[in-house]
Design a protein that fits this description.
The protein is built from 24 helices and 19 strands. The chain is an alpha/beta fold and about 575 residues long. The strands form 3 sheets. A 7-stranded mixed β-sheet has the order 10-9-8-7-11-12-13.
Length: about 575
């Protein structure tokens, strides 16, 4: 048997860790690894057009599967392109291993062509970032990187010079069993006892949920019923907690709606469950707050905190449910449910008032029709900006759908590359990218990746020829919009020229048919919808503080839009409220 080189050993370890694909762009220092993948049938090389796409795609795949994924970039400029997507993956707690290939090891530190120091550059967006400077470091260093990415839910970066990748691997290198799943974390008895006393002593309890409630829907509902608590959520908690939720009072934040803000401010005890919600302007400072999070560094960094609970949300609630005293007084819960329903009724007119005849097309209408026509298990990837607004207000979670975006990092251009990673996981599952024209054109080259691999991603392009959210921010700050207008082509014609399905929609009556045709198409498809750039109404009085941290008044006044099916959900929940 021929002796392995380091690159082959590297690839074998990735396969043992469950990695099925390596996203990247080939280059000289990376060639030994790519060639090793070519000769290994257990892993595929996914050729993208930009390394930023590779990192976003790997991050999305990791969020869909919960398993380790990988991306790669060649030395210098190649791996530098990974950094934005890696920041997003790291802040989304997606386990990603990034290979940053390096210049020849003998030239490091001498100003060689394309020289950078990736082991230093990526430290802020990773749990682990190290250079392999000797073949004997393999495989221990890679195994350590893998276990950091999986165990700590984030990014690890391994820098590997091309000459070392080509070198012979040590004959007696140590390979140990890899950690490929994370354990559950149960809080300590002392903290559980304290939280039980706080809950029993409180008359009005509110739960505010983030992405850390994934897999804990049943426990959250059971606990809410036991303590008669309204349940609000952050944007990243929407897909996990809003569906089948008779205690739902909506979402807080700039994109918020309903009574979530009131419920968090009018309670005696606010329990933050698995949320690192960043906008402290929306959190109260005069109520008792307990926080539960599996990452201790998140505890107390957004608000004042009376009790910190280090543990999984699901395990914590399982400890609480049989021990907390069941409450019988529903007055606070019913009051919040009624406020929530009333708040949604108040904005539904903006969504229903002749929007099916409005030209240019209301983006709210596009999102609502898309929500109706998309599959029950669709994966939606959502561009940052106004697409976040439409996703937050119109996409209906049901426990099977997924909604992925750059919700923590806030990068433009994330939706298309994330759709690539999501679609590679399952070609038969519907993947829909909600793209803005600004974000789409930033990484538009990777539309060709869809065509090259015949990935059946459906892109719904909200084309308002502007950077809508940036324009809104300028107007809220009292500034004239400047540098926010895009001169766009007919994107449907561009799609067709690239070999994909493309259709342009300029009138509302064309929309449903265009979406149905795109969904029926077996390959990649783009629906270019010309939408109204003036879809948002601006309040007559604006303070500068509204911009900073997206303060409450801006969220309540600026976004005068509808809320889609959430009105029906609120009406249904309101039926549970006893009438006087």
């Amino acid at each position: 048997m021929a002796k392995q080189n380091v690159a082959e050993q590297f690839v074998d370890i990735l396969v043992r860790a469950g990695v099925q694909r390596l996203y990247g762009v080939v280059g000289d220092s990376l060639n030994p690894v790519v060639d090793a993948i070519r000769r290994n049938s257990a892993i595929d090389w996914i050729q993208v057009r930009h390394e930023e796409t590779a990192a976003f795609a790997a991050g999305a795949e990791a969020q869909i599967t919960g398993k380790l994924t990988a991306c790669a970039g060649s030395c210098g400029p190649g791996n530098l392109h990974l950094i934005n997507g890696l920041y997003d993956a790291h802040r989304s707690m997606a386990p990603v291993l990034a290979l940053a290939s390096q210049i020849p090891s003998s030239e490091i530190g001498l100003g060689y062509f394309q020289e950078t120091h990736p082991d230093q550059l990526f430290r802020e967006c990773s749990h682990y970032s190290e250079l392999i400077s000797n073949p004997k470091q393999m495989p221990r260093l890679l195994q350590t990187a893998i276990q950091n990415a999986i165990g700590r839910s984030g990014v690890s970066v391994v820098s590997l010079p091309g000459d070392i990748a080509s070198a012979a691997a040590p004959e007696k290198s140590i390979e140990h069993a890899l950690v490929t799943t994370r354990p559950t974390v149960r809080p300590g008895d002392t903290e559980i006892d304290k939280l039980i006393r706080m809950i029993d002593d409180a008359d009005r309890v509110t739960l505010f949920c983030g992405s850390g409630t994934a897999g804990a829907h049943a426990e959250v509902m059971e606990f809410a019923e036991r303590v008669k608590s309204p349940v609000g959520h952050a944007l990243r908690g929407k897909e996990w907690i809003q569906y089948d939720n008779p205690y739902d009072v909506g979402m807080s934040g700039l994109l918020g709606y309903g009574a979530a803000y009131e419920a968090t401010h009018e309670c005696d005890l606010l329990i933050l469950l698995g949320t690192d919600f960043p906008y402290n302007a929306f959190l109260p400072d005069d109520v008792t707050i307990a926080q539960v999070d599996v990452r201790p560094e998140n505890l107390g960094r957004r608000s004042k905190l009376d009790l910190a609970i280090w543990g999984d949300v699901r395990e914590t609630l399982r400890c609480l449910i049989p021990r907390v005293r069941a409450k019988t007084d529903r007055r606070f819960l019913d009051k919040m449910l009624k406020k929530h329903a009333d708040a949604l009724e108040g904005v539904i007119k903006a969504y229903t008032r002749k929007v099916d005849k409005h030209v240019p097309i209301h983006p709210e209408y596009v999102a609502s029709v898309l929500d109706d026509l998309a599959a029950d298990d669709a994966v939606f990837t959502v561009d940052t900006g106004m697409c976040n607004v439409w996703a937050a207000r119109y996409l209906s979670p049901n426990g099977r759908r997924r909604i992925i975006g750059s919700f923590s990092h806030g990068s433009m251009a994330n939706a298309l590359p994330q759709a690539i990673g999501a679609q590679f996981v399952d070609r038969d599952r519907q993947v829909v990218s909600l793209s803005g024209d600004g974000g789409f054109t930033m990484l538009m080259g990777d539309f060709l990746t869809l065509v090259q691999y015949d990935l059946p991603v459906k892109i719904v392009l909200f084309n308002n020829s502007s950077l809508g959210m940036v324009e809104l921010e300028m107007l809220v700050a009292g500034l004239p919009s400047y540098g926010t207008t895009n001169k766009n082509p007919d994107f449907a014609a561009v799609a067709r020229a690239a070999g994909a399905f493309g259709v342009r929609v300029e009138k509302p009556r064309q929309l449903a048919g265009a979406l149905k045709d795109a969904f029926k198409h077996r390959g990649p498809a783009l629906v270019d919808v010309v939408t109204d750039p003036n879809a948002l109404s601006i309040p007559p009085k604006i303070s500068a503080e509204m911009v900073t941290g997206f303060a409450l008044s801006a969220s309540k006044m600026v976004l005068d839009g509808g809320v889609g099916r959430m009105v029906q959900m609120a009406r249904s929940n309101l039926r549970n409220v006893p009438r006087p």
